[in-house]
Amino acid sequence: MSKSIRIYGERLGCEVVELNAQLDRVHLLVKVQPKVLFLSW
Predict the structure, then answer these.
(1) Where in 1-41 does DSSP place strands (E)?
(2) How far is the C-alpha of 35 from the C-alpha of 3, rounded, in Å?
(3) What is the pLDDT of residues 1-41, one digit of tens each?
(4) Domain residues for 26?
């Protein structure tokens, strides 16, 4: 799952800085360019 999130982030032009995936939740720290609409995630 974490690899899929990183690949999707790269496709959007974002950098996944930290990622912690558990059974019932995901914690993300993402570096996003100002041109990327956060709602597209």
Answers:
(1) 15-21, 26-31
(2) 24
(3) 889 989 988 898 889 999 998 999 999 999 988 887 766 55
(4) 2-40
